[in-house]
Amino acid sequence: MGQPVAAEQGGRNGEPEGHEPHAAGGGLKRNLVLGIGSVGVVYGDIGTSPLYALKESLHHASHDGLTRAEVIGVVSLLIWAVVVVVTLKYVVFIMRADNKGEGGTLSLMALAQKAAGRRSLPIFLFGVMGAALFYGDSIITPAISVLSAAEGLKLVTPVFQNQWNVIMLAIGILLALFWVQKRGTASVAKFFGPIMVVWFLVLAILGIMHIEDDLGILAAFNPYHAALFVADHGVIGLIVLGSVFLAVTGAEALYADMGHFGRFPIRAAWLLFVFPALTLNYLGQGAFVLKNLNDPKMISDPFFLLAPEWALLPLVILTGVATVIASQAVITGAFSLTQQAVQLGLLPRIEIKHTSETQLGQIYIAPVNRLLAIGVVLLVLTFKTSSSLASAYGIAVTGAMLADTALFFIVASKVWKWPTWQVVGLGVPFLMVDLVFFGANALKIPEGAYLPLLFGALLIVLMWTWVRGTRIVYDKTRRDSVPLVDLIKMLEKSKPVRVAGTAVFLTSDPEAAPGALLHNLKHNKVLHKRNIVLTIKTADSPRVPDLERLEIQELSEDVKLIIVRVGYMETPRVPHFLA
Q: What is the pLDDT at residue 12?
């Protein structure tokens, strides 16, 4: 061959076996299986929020002692945050903006870019910002989730009253989690769904057991109490809102994982199972706090204290498993996001290893895994407790959600052709909610929220530099290159020495003669009998149908141009395309 062909990255193009993510229906049994699978993968992050969301919110609200009105107001804020941000914004509206079945910030960016017809700077910046901030979330989620679960052991054994023992246990669990990534999670993933189903059932049962502690907590369904709390507490109300946002972290996973499970199973799992379980648990925690309002020790960690004494150890163990599953979900999400970013030209080429023959989403990227592991361990060692880490949590997610909202505006206007009044009428309320939560979380920047912002900013600079650099190199190469058509005409006149065999030349510009071909002629003074110029183009859609994948042009008797089109969710496999 005239130029070494890139090593095959592995994997299979097309849909994961057994998945038809774009179909809304498809049989009750099939949707039930996909729904249970989505509970394990999609809802892990948001499902572990009850561990710390109410605890942290009450902690900030109790600067001068808690009152009944404050507890009901905080629980009302939690419930309505989940209703507005998760149910209305993501489940009802944003999930409609799919790019041929795929979701996520980069899918939304590709859809908006396609509608714009050119690379738009605002669209590009929104997409890059959302992607970069997701990586910040991918570092904090494992740290806070596993640390919260490990802290539950303080209620079981005095050994873990020493916080350093908790920290060492959490780091051990996290390092083991990152270590097993290279082996693949395909065999473990099938157990995620059933375990998380048990987790949400336990959340609901614990909540139901304690709602009768004080039925006054049911007033939290009235949004008046949420609005009254914020209005009466000024800056404290905003600080509490920053902690309330912890209840909706993970909402973006609904959209990002839509391509793996489909819109219908994810929506059904949320509306019929996950949302009711979370609501019941927050109500149960609130009622328990109201009953023990005058006992600070009893309300210091309301989640674990919901369990009877005999069930405390099993609950801590189940919590540990659930937090590992939640962490796995964001790690896998970071791998998938990296693959999309590489295909869309936002990051340099990197080796992507597929760890499953049947699950397309099961991939492993060693450098990303190492960076996440180092970042998570440093966070645990720096912040030491889940309460301290909660201060850094949320800002990255609110930024990513702001990016999703902005891109949704563009898609609704450019792709769906909604009238301006409809786009503004629907989008502005969501934008206002996002801005309020972003402002509330911005108050936590001095306490540690600067870390995910700093990490996100570094990634934005990296992506911007790579995109800008590749464009400069491309333009320079184009200026100095020889048009392929002109070279073929020259070869027909000069008649160079021919050698047997087929040479394949990879190029990013199908109109210019590949550098390897020119060097072969210059130094070896020969031309192969058959020559293939191969270029791979990434489409704006997640996958390209087989019938549209290859375009073959006969430029001359002995030179063929092959243009291969791949989706940004696919791995380009050169040997497979040549075959």
A: 31
